[in-house]
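To assess whether ligand presence alters the predicted conformation, the chain was also submitted together with adenosine-5'-triphosphate. Input:
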Amino acid sequence: MTSILACSDLHAGYQKRPVVRGLNLEAAPGEIVALLGANGAGKTTSLLTMAGLLPPVGGTVTVAGKPVNHNRPYLAARSGLALVPDDKCLFTTLSVAQNISFGRRGKAALSEALSYFPALEKRVRLPAGVLSGGEQQMLALARALVAGPKVMLIDELSMGLAPVIVQDILGVVRRIADDKGTAVVLVEQHVEMALRIADRAVVLAHGDVVLEESASVLREDPGRLRQGYFGRTA
Ligand code: ATP
């Protein structure tokens, strides 16, 4: 299938110094690509660059064939990208419903969000700040979902959450990709759980791609993944 997101020879970093080099990553509609790697490998830096929040040091990011605007993040969002950052970036004093309305206003948006995250139903009038960690993560995803993105970029949704909750939320991410045809790039430390819902995985080590493989192959042969993770540093 044709890709909706394409990173081509992407060099990503800070002050023109790349920490990620030569990343070629594509995602098709409805496809989940897990972006994996040890701490400091460059996953968040790659995601922020795809989202238009960091200018690339080199290479390109396109959505539906059009270059992402790295000077104006709102234009990147308008081109169909939605970032769910690891700190969730919720408005903690505003209600759940108000937070969702930042993705899209109206009752239809709220009921769409609640159809994917029914646990939020009894919480819609509460300030986001009083939600549990899992509920806050659901809210961050719901807000992104109702914006109707072509591509969702999700950074470490498991941060601080119990594995059973992570598993549930990742299941919803799979449903969103299947139902809506949303392409997803998923950065995740819970590698096994990520591989359960992902179609493909790209592994970074020290800023270089060291492995790219279908998730089903890696599920069956975890040794290949370990080699990707640790091979270069052993
Ligand atoms: P983690 O899982 O720990 O978040 P990561 O794979 O997401 O790791 P990044 O956060 O992208 O890795 O960091 C990649 C490299 O870029 C690291 O060496 C980090 O120290 C460096 N780095 C991250 N943020 C900045 C910044 N704002 N300025 C300069 N260097 C940075």
